[in-house]
Amino acid sequence: MTIADAGHVQEGDWLVGNPTGLQLASALWIGSVGLLILGLQPVLLGALYTEGHVTGDELALVATAEMIAIAIGSAIVAMLLPARNMRWKSAVLLVVLALANFWTAFSESPNSLIVARTLAGLAEGGLVAVATELIARSRRAERIGGYFVTLQTLAQCALALLLALYAVPAAGSAGGFVALGIVCLISLVVAWIVPDDYADLPKDEHFANVLTVPAMTALLSIFCYFMFFGAVWAFLEPLGAEFGIDGRTVGLMVSASLAAQVVGAMTATVFEARIDYRFAVTVIGAVAAISSALLASGPGLVVFWAVALVMGFILLFIVPYQIRMAITADETRTAVLLVPAAQLFGLAIGPIAASLLIDGENFRPVPEFAAASALASVALLGVFVLAGRRRVPA
What we know:
The protein is mainly α. The chain contains 18 helices and no strands. The N terminus is likely disordered.
């Protein structure tokens, strides 16, 4: 089934509203532009570090500030602003993001970079909400969510390849960020295809809908899962170095893992309706914990490669099932709108929390922390299931 098929004009496909396939695809693309940076950070931020614009600590601050800003931006637009004039909002956010990318390209100081990427993150979060607001209105939100993560990861892979081969070698990090800004401006054409007004979801007392045990445990489970991945991903190169694996090989692993993410997202899209979300979240959480434990055990090259590929595959495979968990927690679908925020906060907090455990050149506590985060995600699913059972008789 294609994205266009998913958005085919049938009243039964949507809780409210009835977007065309082209409108749905446009909204998913706008959201994907907001998340391009997640796949491009190793290329662009790595170039900033290599060129001496930032130190290692400053680089971590730049990356963390942007991810937290994306989470805040997506939550603000989804929770506080009405889903009206979405074409204008998309266009304005794309222009702001383009300007922030151009600002980044010509920033001279770390503080300027942090401010520029924070502004970029807020705009990127708003663009993500353009997609998630529409996904939340679909009766098959899990499947549309699968299409969304597949599209964004394919776009990340393609653009990362172009930047690494052409833009960055020719013009450095500045060329990469300028190219990213140009992608935003080109996407203005797509912004005018997005549905202008999304039909309203039942959002009365929407904060109360989220402040329940099922909704909070569902979002915390998602947060902990992405904290696991964020911790390992941020320190993959020093972990490899500790076990005798050179940086170039780890770079190849990162590229291969991005491809595995695409495969994982596409596989989940095919099988999401056939696997119970509780089973999927439990098994994937266990796989995440085992993979992290293997990294902590001092693996050889083959095992390290296998773990990198497995982690890439499960990262996006789980997303449709997390969406289903959030829908089950809150039938008004308000909690679903906060799923991207929970994911991005996890990606941002994971490296910070894990870094507190690092002792000198010993990075083994990082995968140990990641394993604990993955197990916490599964434990929170258990709390979620118990809370749901108690709620049914009431």
